[in-house]
Amino acid sequence: MEKKWKCTVCGYIHEGKTPPEFCPVCGAFKYQFILYEPLPPSLEKHLREAFAGESKAYVRNLAFAAQADREGFPQVARLFRAVAEAERVHAQEYLKYLEGVVEDTETNLKKAFENEMRAKNEYYPDFIKEALALKREDVYWSFNRARDVEERHALLYKQALTAMVSDKEITYHVCQVCGYVFDGEPPDRCPVCGAERKRFKKVG
Known about the structure:
Layout: E1 3-7, E2 13-16, E3 33-35, H1 41-70, H2 74-95, H3 105-133, H4 137-162, E4 172-175, E5 181-183, E6 200-203
Antiparallel strand pairs: 1-2, 1-3, 4-5, 4-6
Helix pairs in contact: 1-2, 3-4
């Protein structure tokens, strides 16, 4: 029975019992094709769980690498970074099966804006309230800074939506203490956490 296979690189649809060895449009290898049909609900659930797990492992291993560097174990740090990169590859592998997670850029910007506003208005207020109730001011300040930064992210996404056709090139700098994103040259101090200019990292 003939099946439909979709190239996850360029979107080409192939009909046949198996995917082609290489995509005739973009040259992608056969393992970058997926069946062009809905996933069984149980498999979609497992793929979402696997994606979340690999994404967390990626960040966790980068944290392990940083700690190994601080303790003077550069080879162990390199190993953690290598495995982190492998976890990122796994996460992207699972992501290609999940319809609607990544769409066209305009839709992605709109979804990103909505997600940031949801985090700011729905999630963090409860987190902050509980941290205060439990008298954990350190956690309170972490949540509070993150909430303020989410609002900043939402603003940047909104600006990007209105300037998608602009040729203006913007360089971003990210505060490595609280995650605040500054468009252009970084300020002398972070407006959210007060970190010095040197704590900003250029991205993009």
